[in-house]
Design brief:
The complex is a heterodimer of chains A (118) and B (963). By secondary structure, chain A is mainly alpha-helical. Chain A is built from 4 helices and no strands. Chain B has a two-stranded antiparallel sheet. In chain B, a hairpin with a 4-residue loop joins strand 1 (61-68) and strand 2. The chains are: A mainly alpha (118), B mainly alpha (963).
Chain lengths: 118, 963
Amino acid sequence: MEAILASAIGVLTAAGVYLLLRLRTFPVILGLAFLSYAVNVFIFASGRLAIDQSPILSRYGEASYTDPLPQALVLTAIVISFGMTAVLVMIGLAAYFEAESDRVDIDATDDRADGEGK
Amino acid sequence: MNDQGHFLFLISLLPFLGAVIPGIMIRAGRNACASFTAVPTVLALILLMILAPDVLRGEVITAEVMWLPQLGLSVSFFLDGLGLMFAAMILGVGLLITLYARFYLSGDDPMGQFYTYLLMFQGAMLGIVISDNILLLLIFWELTSLSSFLLIGYWKHLPEGRQGARMALAVTGAGGLAMIGGMLILGHVAGSYKLTDILQAGEAIRASEWYLPALILILLGAFTKSAQFPFHFWLPHAMAAPTPVSAYLHSATMVKAGVFLMARMWPVLAGTDAWFYIVATTGLVTMVLGALIALFKDDLKALLAFSTVSHLGLLTMLLGFGTEAAAVAAVFHILNHLTFKAALFMTVGIVDHETHTRDISRLGGLRHLMPITFAIGTIAALSMAGIPLLNGFLSKEMMLEEASHTYWAGSTWAVPVLATLGALLSVAYSFRFIGHVFLGPVRDDYPHKPHDPPMGLWAAPALLTVLVVVIGVAPFLAEGIVTAAANAVTGADLHPHLKIWHGATPALWMSIIAVLGGGALLGLHKPFLSAWEAAPRPEAKAIFDRLLAAIIALSRGITEIAHNGAISRYLAVFVVTSVALGWIAYSGSALSAPTRGLLPVPAVIGIGWLMLIVASVAVVILHRDRFTSLVLIGIIGLTISAGFAYLSAPDLALTQISVETVTIMLLLLALHFLPKTTPVESSVLRRVRDGVIAVVAGGGVGALAYAFMLRDISTISQFHLDNSYEGGGGTNVVNVILVDFRGYDTYGEIIVLGIAGMVIYALVQTLLAGPVARKLRGGGAMSEVLREGLAVTHLSRDRHPLMMVVVTRVLMPIAIVVGAYIFLRGHNEPGGGFVAGLVVAIALLMQYMASGFAWTQARKRIEYHTLIGFGVIIAGLTGAGAWLSGTPFLTSAYTYVHLPPIEEFELATAMLFDLGVFLTVLGAVMLMLYSLSRIARHAGETVNVEAMDYDPADRVTERGAET
């Protein structure tokens, strides 16, 4: 189980990094989503894996539980990463409307024009 | 802290507080402005005088407020003899400058600004001399650089002013950076950043192997500030400043900061060979060189500037000698130099003001036209030359006395001869100042007919000249302060006797040689000048400019490689660096043996894993087709939530699945406007490179996760499990952590989420108010692209199908009930505010999608911003409610209620907090998606008033009407 989870984290990270290095906004946002998955699962896994040990306290005697702390951290992280993605999407969209291009990098020519303007 | 300590704090604060005043008072006129500027200075001076008697008795007054004791950071001041002397100089001359500047500045100059800068500078300078913490001292040190930059560049319209200000900032700022390094080393060696502690640790510091680096770095700071060779060149260029600034900064205060620092650090750093050879030699060279250049300068301010360089060299040399007598001489000369040099600068200012030139070759014979100025200037200049019965003579004699028995690398004559030469040159330029400006025939070609200025202008230099004479005639008057300061510098108990006549000592003969030689030299000034002009010599400004250009080119080169504006390059650099750092960390230490075994993998889980891997790879391969990749991402999200559910994390599974839904909706909405495909742009080589980076990074992270999961570490989790029920009143530990143990984090997080929602709303608002709205509405290439995009999505002509509208409307109450259920059970079972908020948000979104934007919008009762605000406020008030029972913020309370006929249930304040979370999440998610859809309306999408394109209900009523 640990091996397949680790490999899943690895593949998610690799896909995320590859997409992050693309030149258009949309793949970059997808890449960030991938990285969010990977990071969330990673943090979750730092509490060690356990099956059928949900951190819901049993009223009927002793039971063993998995680590609840990483779960709490990941729960908010999932929601926050949604917020982050939304902001990025909006910025990407606004940039697309302004520049009429969804390229991520500033063209060398644009850069020079900016410099002269100053 | 006692009253004295409070006074010290007040003294340090007064100038900064006062800096606000001129900006306000300037509206009341120039006189009012100047008067009110003087108030904080006068108050600080009075407080200082109250403290002075104790300090003169040898007490050290301290004041301290701890800030971060663990890091050695505190706001601490102390006042000893040296600090008192400097503080009195800074405040006293500051007061005179305030008066002088009132009459010097013309009506066109923004006087309020000037006084604000002046007080800021005064505060920074005061801070340096009374700081007890070297880190605090560094801050004030940098502040003097900054405020002097503003003052030097005060006449913004003059290019020389701007360039001079920049040069001063670059040189002193660079020195300040070096000094930070030196001070940190010093604090590290001494084990404390408190100056009073460091001063006690001199032995240990001098013995440390870090002594030399620290010494050199600190001296770099001091030498640049005090314009020592080879950093002397900035001072003459800083003369582009208004003369009050030159008189204040460049004679009395800022340039003395370096000397002050050397004096302050004297007990710690002095006494070694390295100190003697670096400091004394630099001082000696600077003294002679500065005096030599000053002799040939025609610009009066340049003459004084180089003379200041020379005198600062003299002081540096004295401190470099490392003997107690030399330290006394240095302290005394600091005081004397202040009096005559400030008076001279002000005199030059008057001459400049009255004749409209300060070029010596155009002046002469002013003694008849400006008798008062002549008297002041002459007395001050004679003191600078070291003529008996004036104070400059006394300290110069002491300097020569010390020089006469100092050996330099075994040579007995090098220092005395060079010191005499320096004194001789000093006499020459002082005589030149008197002779070529005031003496000689009256000319008829002054640029402006000169006469003595109003008293306001000459009062300040006159007062200083009185001091020159008084100290010169009755030196014992200055003995108290000089003794206190010298004792503070040396740490010894000295009782120096300042007197005029020491007998026929070597110093007297050296002095006589200097005066006679200087006079003779002035007589031969013309031939010497032509020889000087003919001699090749390096031009400091050109060298500085070339050096600066080279440094700028270098940094630009580095920047353009690492920081060329392409974000994909930054990200690549970032990923590669992270992987490299991870590798370094890994290779630097051995991995401990695994302590856990592997869990088995059931077949279903194996299939899920396969789905995730295939979907991820597919996204990478097919990412150019954006819709397809979105669908594939959905698979990944669902698989992950299933994984969470399997691995004992039901809350995460719930959250992940609902976030997944809204994320996909969001991306779909965005894709509505964006191009539907990604063109091939990067070369194969680049894709291979990115692939390699990605695989290495992924492999690294995967290996790290694997290694992590197989090892046990000690955590604080057991605490949460143990206390969740009894402390937090809930059995769902994850939820209790969120709303109770780590409630503060959660509170911050919902605020962040709320801000994200507002940001998006604001962005859309700005976008739709700007030129983009026009672009969206019609015309141009943009709307073509958009229309094309919209056309694809309009494959179905039935935008709001009947079935969907009906189903979503029926679903709405069910979804709300589910949301409420999830919310209410959250404290004890999987669920809670986050998930409930997302579920309700999805239910609302369904209405938007099915029944259309306008229809839903018309039925919305509460703005989403309001929801966010209420959420944050409710959560905050719940937290603050804990204060009422005297417990810390966000401490929760709970009770069990039994209301027949339903089962016993729990009421907890945590639930109220969770309500805040719920509202914020709901508001933020809705605000985000709603904002995005607003763009669509501007892009020409039609607005539906009716929910359904075809409403059967209309038919029924129509038919009813017919029959």
